[in-house]
Amino acid sequence: MTADRAAFAVLGATGFTGRAIVGYLLKRISAPLKWIIAGRDVQALTEMAAEFAQGYAPEIVEIEDLGLADIGRLTSQTEWLINAAGPYAHHGDRVIESCLGSGTHYIDISGEVDVIGDWIHLFHDRAVAANIQIIPAAGFEALPFDLMTRAAVERMAADHPVTQVHVDVLLSYRGFSWVNFSQFASSGTVATALETLVRNPSKQRLIDPSSLIANDLAQFSRDRNRLDLSAKYDHEYQVWRAPLVPGPFINPAVIHRSNALLNDLGEGYGQGFSYEESMNVSSIAPWPLGQSVLANTLASSAREFLAALGEDSVRRQSTLALWRSLAEQPSRVTSKSLDAVGYQLDVVASHHGTPKVRARMYGTGHPGYRSTGNIIGEIALGFAKSRGKVRRGGVLTPAVGLEKDILARLNKAGISCCWL
Questions:
Q1: Which of 46, 52, 174, 224 has its CA 20 to 30 A from that of 21?
Q2: For strand 133-135 and strand 105-108, is the pairing parallel, antiparallel, or unpaired?
Q3: Three-state SS for 216?
Q4: How far is 388 from 386, CA to CA, in rounded Å?
Q5: Among 347, 354, 377, 278, which residue's Cα sits nearest to residue 25?
């Protein structure tokens, strides 16, 4: 890397998530910093840059399209490229190709597990050879789940051998109402789900938790882990659980890839590792009967989503119509409402079936509309402070590619963690 490069660049800075990232940096940048915002709308970029004090303001790079020549003008000027310009299935590979050609590290908030699988096939070996980091899925999906899993396993490993480890994560929402779907899924997340339906990937690529693994752990992970899309009552927590809305596919695949990558470093979770997650429906529905009905409805919706993949059918067309209608609904969220909600992850790491470690993460703000922007903004500031420090290259995961102190630093982004 050359010293005259910017520390990082935000591509898609005028989109919703891009604005959230820049808005967070407006509050957090406290020293002169060379960084870039990029996109198509120069006027909007100029207005955003004008909000910063002199010396703190970003440079502006206009990107007329995402062809390799145009994006190359950006990637050649920065050490890290933060890609907030989805959908990633359309142009993510071109952006990554440009990063590899420029010697630039890459991070995004993608959630398309089959697309990430393609990137591993196309770019992992080249990124390893060039010591370039490519880190997808670093937003609410799948960073908090991935980081907390690694933290819980490592804490347990201090007292117990890492064999037959199981991690369970329960996601609870705070301040959300079950009557408004748009409160749970951001417009970008809905667009990603619709794009996945249109792209029509193999069902197996979504439901196989080992789909992002290419080494010997793949079969072990496949044998011990089956994606659970059922609703069930949890007698320990005394809540109804259902698959995560709207996409229960990305987190397990990312977490099992973390295990595989760490295993190559001698730091993995072991061949017997298993992982499961679900959403606490009781945190959003007020009555026991309503909780049961909602949990089963969400589980049925997840199964219908999978059933719509494949050959054209009436079921596929009706599911596409449903998601298109959701994508067309105007967002009713306000800035005040984004800060009034939050989420909680309860994490239990068990050894041979016996719980050994319990942890909890609290997140402030809407997961997609607010928390993701805060997370990426804080990560960007970490890039600026640790320039040139790269542990290893490749298509990585948040738990493997980011510095180990990232959980502590995310306190400033409204995320706190504690051991129970």
A1: 174
A2: parallel
A3: coil
A4: 6
A5: 377
Rounded Cα distance, 379 and 381, in Å: 5
Q: How far apart are CA 74 and CA 102, in angstroms?
A: 9
Contact 273, 259 (CB under 8 A): yes
Q: What distance in Å separates the CA atoms of residue 412 and residue 377, rounded to the nearest whole number?
A: 10
Average pLDDT, 10 consecutive residues per value, the chain (420 residues): 85 93 95 94 96 94 81 95 92 95 96 95 96 96 96 91 89 78 68 89 89 72 76 95 87 94 90 92 87 93 91 89 85 73 95 91 91 96 82 93 91 95
Q: Please, are residues 283 and 342 in contact by the beta-carbon 8 Å criterion?
A: no
Q: Determine the Cα–Cα distance for residues 389 and 33; give it in Å rounded to an integer.
A: 18
**Sign of the Cα pseudo-torsion (187, 189, 192, 197, in order):** negative
Calculate the alpha carbon distances from 101 to 5, 45, 69, 72, 98 in Å.
15, 26, 11, 8, 5
372, 17 contact by CB (below 8 A)? yes
The residues facing 417 across adjacent strands are 361
Return the structure tokens found at 390.
């790269």
The pair of three-digit structure tokens given for residue 413, joined into one six-digit string: 């982004």
In angstroms, the CA 399 to CA 386 distance is 17
Nearest to 5 by CA among 112, 119, 102, 140: 102
Q: Locate 114 and state its tokens.
A: 């089959």
Cα–Cα distance, 37 to 59 (Å, whole number): 6
Write down the number of H helices and E strands in the chain.
Answer: 16, 14
- Look up the pTM and report it: 0.94
